Amino acid sequence: MRCVESVFEVQEGNYQERKGQAETILTQAMLNEIFPDEDEYTVMYEYAVDQIHSYVDQKDEEASAFVTFEQEVTDTKNKKENDSYVTIEFFLQKEGERCLINDFKQIQSEPL
Predict the structure, then answer these.
(1) E strand segments, the chain
(2) pLDDT for residue 39 is more than 80
(3) Which distant-in-sequence residues (6+ apart) come within 8 Å of 84 by Cβ?
(4) What is the CATH number of the domain that holds 8?
């Protein structure tokens, strides 16, 4: 799922690629918040995601998506890894014919 990968798949050197993907799925406000006007930044932790599953909840004009995934976090200094199972709720806003993510909140994160 592109929204999870563009926001949560953080690796050294992939900032511009992630930002390019996010431009098609995030509102401008969310894009500015997650991807400030920097070309790059120092990556202290790398994040890899796997086993992504999504569930859409739609009520009339409002919609959200619950997304679960496994996340591996690696400290770039000591290479220590932590794995967790994450649940996020993405809030969607209709813009024209498309629904864009205008906010999200982490609901749960538990160690694997």
Answers:
(1) 45-59, 62-75, 81-95, 98-111
(2) no
(3) 70, 71, 73, 109, 110, 111, 112
(4) 3.10.450
